[in-house]
Amino acid sequence: MTDTPPLSPPSEDLKPIERLVALMQMLRSERGCPWDREQTILTLKEHLVEETYEVVDAMQSGDRSQLREELGDLLLQIVFQSQIASEEQAFTFDDVATAIVEKLIRRHPHVFGHVQVSDSGEVLKNWEAIKREEKAGQTKPRSAVEGIPRSLPALHRAHLLQKRAARVGFDWDHVQGAIDKLDEEIAEIKQAMAEGDEAGMREEVGDLLFAAVNVSRFFGHNAEEILEQTIDKFSRRFQRLEDLVHAGNRSLSDCTLDELEAVWSQVKVEEKQAG
Q1: Among 29, 43, 95, 230, which is 20 to 30 Å from 18 by CA?
Q2: Mean pLDDT of 100-113
Q3: Neighbours of 28 (CB within 10 A)
Q4: Where are any strands of DSSP class E within 40-108?
Q5: Torsion, Cα of 33, 35, 38, 44 (10° steps)
Q6: For the CA atoms of 155, 159, 161, 164, what is the dihedral angle to 10 degrees?
Q7: Cβ proximity of 132 and 141 under 8 Å
Q8: CB within 8 A of 267, min separation 6: which ones?
Q9: pTM (two decimals)
Q10: 111-148, pLDDT tens digit by residue?
């Protein structure tokens, strides 16, 4: 019995995206990879999410070589799902690319048409208006906040929700309104605590977090990114606190809260001096 000869990779004469699509077709073929053949749209979900976050990490690192690699991994997920859909005779990768090209042309009438806009804010408002027109045939009008993925991290989802609402005019005129809302939510938490209302406390803390996201949005920041930076800062400072305590042959559990607060202040001063 002779061994089956290996497959030849797609020709280098093909355009890169064509070569990638052809390669995925080979991997999913009978002579391809058992793991690739076993995958379904749903089993690829966790890989898509993981690759997306790895792209975000690469973006934040500033390492363009890493970003190039991670974008390739993310593109693979799109080609992979498109190949499965093609086998189901649902759609192809070309259909995906064609649909987004047509959508971008349709939603940029200020570039490919005669619509006039003065700034990016008007662009976004037009974008939402065009989306509503596209869904005009539906029995129920499309909500301005519809379509935001529930699987997004909660802070990022809140940020997008508030941006969508703001585009149709549901927003404070000034950041002070958002800050006043923070004070209001804190007062409501205190009231729920005073009443011993556990469900109320839970709800009001949620409202406080949502209000904090709004303040962040007003300042032009994404609360998810800000919190990530704060978490990194806390982790870095806490590890330095541990180092200082352990250098004195003590454990954190041996220290009082006042002693730990003093070391924490020292860590903050060190960071400030280091610049």
Answers
A1: 43
A2: 94
A3: 18
A4: none
A5: -120
A6: -170
A7: yes
A8: 237, 240, 241, 244
A9: 0.64
A10: 999 999 889 988 988 888 888 787 766 656 678 788 88
CB atoms within 10 A of CB 73: 16
On whether the CB atoms of residues 178 and 172 are closer than 8 A, the answer is yes
Tokens of residue 41, six digits: 């749209």
Q: How far apart are CA 257 and CA 275, in angstroms?
A: 27
Integer Cα distance of 275 and 263 in angstroms = 19
Integer CA distances (angstroms), 93 to 149, 207, 222, in order: 22, 42, 32
In this structure, what token pair is assigned to residue 13? 């004469």
Q: Which amino acid is at 249?
A: N
**How many other CB atoms are found less than 10 A from the CB of residue 24?**
22
- Distance between start and end Cα atoms, the chain: 70
Q: Tell whether the model's pLDDT for residue 2 goes beyond 60.
A: no
Nearest partner of 167 among 125, 210, 108, judged by Cα = 125
Over the stretch 209-219, which tens digit does the pLDDT of each residue have?
Answer: 999 999 999 99
Q: How far apart are CA 206 and CA 215, in angstroms?
A: 15
Q: What contacts 110, CB < 8 A, 6 or more positions away? A: 116, 117, 123, 126
Q: How many CA atoms lie within 13 A of 257 on its CB side?
A: 0
Query: SS3 for 195?
Result: coil
Neighbouring C-beta atoms of residue 185, cutoff 10 Å: 19
Q: Which two structure tokens, joined as six digits, stand for 73?
A: 């991994």
